[in-house]
Amino acid sequence: MSHYDVVVIGAGAAGLMCAITAGNRGRKVLVVDHANKAGKKILMSGGGRCNFINMYSEPENFLSHNPHFCKSALVRYTQWDFIALVDKHGIPYHEKKLGQLFCDNKSSDILEMLLRESDEADVTIRLNTSVEGIEKTEQGFELKTNTSDVTCESLVIATGALSIPTMGATGFGYDIARQFGHTIHDTRAGLVPFVITNQLKPLCEALSGSSVDTTVSCNGQTFRENILFTHRGISGPAILQISSYWREGDEVEINLLPDREAQSWLTEEQSARPNAELRTVLSDVFTKKMATLFCENWFASKPMKQYTAPELEKIATQLSEWKITPSGTEGYRTAEVTIGGVDTNELSSKTMMSNKVDGLYFIGEVVDVTGWLGGFNFQWAWSSGHAAGERV
Ligand code: FDA
């Protein structure tokens, strides 16, 4: 049986950051992962270019039952710390939009950086290794694995959450948390497309592939971004963002004219172009196909002069306060993240250590902290991993 100061279960973003930080402090660290490759989600992230951080990251960009929990870790390992690491390795990157930093080349640049850092910090990474049992001992923990058993002083659970089961996502972290008496907040898919099965479905299908700039609101939260119609419903960044705030049965409001006051714009157009058809006026803002389908679905297209003021008001409301009730989401199959997880009230916000079991830590997505779309989830992985790495 081999002994390590620290065993990290999960060679993903959070686990590797934790291992590097602990290794650099001179701790003897082992990382185990059941997958045949480290950091698979890093590789698939950001459409293959890894949106590794957001320059404007703030605690407000994270969801949790305890919104204050993330603050300490975020302050002590910031976006600028991670950007400095990326710069140190000479990795080229760019801001795509809204502070989102992506690799110029491939996500593998970030994974290779982490593996190089792990190597320099003398971290041992054992892949294809499943943990079959964990026991608390007087000195720490004893782990049974499918290869050889190990003991350690500190045990870090960095096994991520339930999104994309085909990539090896499991509920293992929650099982361990429960084994040691922790509370798990109900989990659900976040940053995930909506499925529409009601009378709206034909419109979504007909517009599949088209996107439009909007503001989307639900449960007091609003995002300004594109929505994208799909064969199954609606997606796009604004929908992914709002999906994290949506619950079964909730209504979502979409403003298709985020830059205009809809009613005054339509009234002005009526005076300026009385003979133009509504469809033609709408084509100034939407694609021709969209304008036509909106008219076919919602209001007959006539020359502008033929609409009464109440009719124009109805059209304005439809376009600026379009209310939809999604039938559901695509679920963990395509969700970028899992909302909910290990209750933060039972962890130290400074070190991520359990306040129930000395030496047991939870970091990354398994914890009830979820970021918005745009590099925030990796920020949480880096910051929480670093916080634990400084203490283990
Ligand atoms: P992560 O899932 O990365 O790692 C967990 C590790 O634990 C895995 O290696 C897994 O194999 C291992 N593991 C699981 N169960 C185990 C067990 N029982 N035994 C041993 N090992 C086990 N975020 C962002 O900020 N920018 C982006 O561009 C994207 N893009 C993106 C795209 C897609 C398609 C997805 C699905 C997700 C994203 N994300 C993202 C989210 C981001 O990938 C995610 O939040 C982090 O990877 C979470 O890091 P963790 O280390 O917590 O888990």
Question: Would you spell out the secondary-structure blueprint of this structure?
Answer:
Layout: E1 2-9, H1 13-24, E2 29-32, H2 40-44, E3 51-54, E4 62-63, H3 71-76, H4 79-88, E5 93-95, E6 100-103, H5 108-120, E7 124-126, E8 131-136, E9 141-145, E10 150-157, H6 172-179, E11 184-190, E12 194-195, H7 201-206, E13 211-218, E14 221-229, E15 233-235, H8 237-243, E16 252-255, H9 262-272, H10 278-282, H11 288-298, H12 309-320, E17 322-324, E18 328-329, E19 337-342, E20 360-362, E21 370-371, H13 376-389
Parallel strand pairs: 1-2, 1-10, 2-7, 10-20
Antiparallel strand pairs: 3-6, 4-21, 5-6, 8-9, 9-10, 11-19, 12-15, 12-18, 13-14, 13-16, 14-15, 16-17
Helix pairs in contact: 1-5, 1-13, 9-12
The protein binds dihydroflavine-adenine dinucleotide (FDA).
The site of dihydroflavine-adenine dinucleotide has 37 residues, from helix 1, helix 2 and helix 13.
What does this structure look like?
This protein has 392 residues and is of the alpha+beta class. The chain has 13 helices and 21 strands. The two termini are 21 Å apart. It has helices spanning 13-24, 40-44, 71-76, 79-88, 108-120, 172-179, 201-206, 237-243, 262-272, 278-282, 288-298, 309-320, 376-389; strands spanning 2-9, 29-32, 51-54, 62-63, 93-95, 100-103, 124-126, 131-136, 141-145, 150-157, 184-190, 194-195, 211-218, 221-229, 233-235, 252-255, 322-324, 328-329, 337-342, 360-362, 370-371. Strand 14 (221-229) and strand 15 form a beta hairpin. The chain is elongated, with a radius of gyration of 24 Å. Helix 1 packs parallel to helix 5 and helix 9 crosses helix 12 (309-320). The strands form five sheets. Strands 1, 2, 7, 8, 9, 10 and 20 form a seven-stranded mixed β-sheet that branches. It has two domains: 2-189 and 338-389, FAD/NAD(P)-binding domain; 194-329, Elongation Factor Tu (Ef-tu), domain 3, CATH 2.40.30.10. Bound molecules: dihydroflavine-adenine dinucleotide. Dihydroflavine-adenine dinucleotide is lined by residues 9-15, 32-35, 40-41, 44-46, 50-51, 130-131, 158-160, 163-164, 168, 170, 172, 336-337, 364-365, 375-378, 381.
